[in-house]
């Protein structure tokens, strides 16, 4: 795949990066170099290689996925401008 100046212009616009017209050829070349490197990575044989999180072997910390109230409802409600019966009170919007 090859990136031309038009595609580089479009990518820059989507990324909200201002690129001068004179810099578009160099940007397109950089994109092509990046894509070439990615293609090289695709040629690497990774059969049997375990995915890893870090270069040092470690196990990710996990916890049970349990719904709780956070354990401090009064502290949370203390930030509310108006709280009633353990809930945030807000003005009525829809009639």
The beta-strand count equals 2
Uncertain spans: none
In angstroms, what separates the terminal alpha carbons? 57 Å
Helix fraction bin:
25-40%
Q: DSSP helix count?
A: 3
Helix-strand string? HHHEE
Alpha-beta classification: mainly alpha
Q: Write down the overall mean pLDDT.
A: 89
Largest sheet: 2 strands, antiparallel
Q: What best-fitting shape do the alpha-carbon axes yield?
A: flat
**Global Rg:** 27 Å
How are strands sequenced across the largest beta sheet?
A: 1-2
Indicate the proportion of strand residues. Answer: under 5%
Secondary-structure blueprint:
Layout: H1 5-14, H2 24-42, H3 73-77, E1 83-84, E2 87-88
Antiparallel strand pairs: 1-2
Helix pairs in contact: 1-2
Family: Belongs to the GatC family.
Protein name: Aspartyl/glutamyl-tRNA(Asn/Gln) amidotransferase subunit C
InterPro entries: Asp/Glu-ADT_sf_sub_c, GatC
């Amino acid at each position: 795949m090859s990136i031309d100046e038009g595609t580089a212009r479009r990518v820059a616009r989507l990324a909200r990066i201002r690129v001068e017209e004179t810099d578009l050829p160099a940007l397109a070349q950089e994109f092509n170099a990046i894509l070439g490197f990615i293609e090289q990575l695709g040629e690497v044989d990774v059969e049997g290689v375990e995915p890893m999180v870090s270069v040092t072997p470690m196990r990710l910390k996990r916890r049970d996925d349990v719904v709780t109230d956070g354990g401090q409802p009064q502290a949370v409600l203390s930030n509310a401008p108006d709280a009633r019966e353990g809930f945030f009170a807000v003005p009525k919007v829809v009639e």
